[in-house]
Amino acid sequence: MTDKRTRTYPLPKVKELIEKNQIIDPSPNVRQGAMEMGFSVYEAYQEILKLEPSHLYKSTTEINNNKVWQDVYKKKIKGICVYIKFKVFEDHFLLTSFKPDEKS
User: Fold this and answer.
1) What fold is seen in the domain 3-100?
2) What's the whole-model pTM score?
């Protein structure tokens, strides 16, 4: 995996994809992570729409494919520091992680 401190995907584009419902269904693990914090997937998307550039933590490549980048944001929501990771795939948004930040 490779990391960088700049975003791969512009937040306005990410938010536009979510607002237009150009979304790939997240995995059961992502749904479970959101539910364990009391969020539905819809509520997780609503929180992503509120992300600011200052919430960016890093961009990182996928474990098995160093050509695919994912942006990682950390944001305090309802008193919980949340680790949010996503990518844009063929002009669709894919949420790959929405869970408590274990390093906070």
Assistant:
1) YaeB-like fold (3.30.2310)
2) 0.94
